[in-house]
Each structure stands twice: as structure tokens, then as C-alpha cells.
Amino acid sequence: MILKENQHRTLEGEDQAHLVSVINSSLRVANMHHFFSWSQGAIQLLLPHEILVCGILTGAGSPMRFMRFSSSRYFDDTRFSEACHPVEGLLPQMISHSNETGRACMLGTGAPQRYCNDALLPLLERSELRSAAADGQRGLDGRLKSYFCFSRVEIPLGTRVEYLLQLLVPYLHTTLSRVISNEGPDAGMDSLKNVPSVTAREVQVLNYIKLGKTNQQIAEELALSPLTVKNHVQRILRKLNASNRGHAVALAINFGVLKAQ
Q: Is 0.90 topped by the overall pTM?
């Protein structure tokens, strides 16, 4: 990833194309499964992560409603509920920090202290999130009306991640709001719990499997070793709980991770 750290921060090279892809593909997101696929595809190329927790206000006076997009066996239902507890949870406290400071909140190894209070680190550790980088969309009153927390982020936390959040959050908010408007306030709250977290590279491998390519052919297409491709395939089968390659493709289409056509 190339990003100038100067007064006029900007993306360069392929990252500009990745951002255009995020914007264009957001227009095709019609339901929660599409949203999951979008967050694990186009967005991963800019801000690689393992877990995404989204919070959004669905009505005046209503509490923020949280949903997660991950199948991590560590961040299970219990830890998700604890992280979103309205009083003691990590997410509401991160939201409070962002409301008070008007900026992103980050926690984890290497995160500058200006992004959050280290007192929240025990909550981060208990939740199994490892790292967290979050910000949201604000209303006219300056208060947050949605919040997006990327966890187990695979790039160093800091100014660069803050800039990427500034770029991505408006599209995350608009896209999620549209899906909820279409499907209702309870859209996807339960059905997405078991959607597998497939990385952008694994989606690439799945697409080649769908085309009937062998591990050797996929390795040549992606400039990887056959062993690396084999490891990707094994992880895909595990994540999808698939019995074979064809079964994995069928499940991925059903989950919205792959397109049918």
C-alpha cells in the first residue's frame, strides 16, 4: 500500500483503483450477504482485517444496533455480546471516545496513545479482537449515527489507518443504511452469525476453483507456489465446512461470498 504521509494525504497507484472498486461495488450491495461479501472483498484490499463490527442507529431514541461480519472461532457469540454491552462493553466505550474527541479510536500493539485510553486494553484482550480501529458517520449535531470497527487489522495502526477510515466510513454508512432500509431494521442480525470470514485472496482462489482450475493452474495465475495454493484451499474448506472443492464453491455462492455467474 502506498500512502503519502504529508499535509495533503492521498492514495497512489493501485490503491486509487482499489478505492474506485469499493465505491463502484458498493452500488451492487442489495442485502446483508452482499454487504459481507463486499466487506471481505473490495474493502479488504485497502484495509485488511479479520473482523468487522458495525453499529447503526435505526430510529430516533433507539440504541445503536450492532452486527458482526466474521466467523472467527475466537470472537464468538459470548464475546460479541460482551463487546457490545451498553455499559461495560468495549464498543460503546470506543464510541464514547470518538464522540468526545471527534476522531477515530484505535487500540492494540503500536497504536499511538492519542487514539484511545490504554485503560480499554483489558477489554480488547478479553474480547479476542487483538486490535481495533474504528470510526463512524456523524449527524448534523456531531454525534455518531453509525460506527464501524475493524479488528485484527493486518497493517500498523496510526495515521494511515485513520485516513483509510475517513475514506471508507461514508460508503460503509450509506451502503449499510440502504440495505437496512430495504430489508428492515432486523435485517441480517441473526442470519450472518455463521457466515464465514473468507479473505480477499481466498475469494480469488475460490473464483479459480469455480472455473475448474487445478492448484497448479491457480498458482500460475496468482504467481504463488502450488503449496501456498494448497494451503489456501485447505483453509477455505475448513472455513466453509465443505467436503470438497465443488461443495466449497456452492457454499460460497450461497453465503454471497462468490457470485453465481
A: no
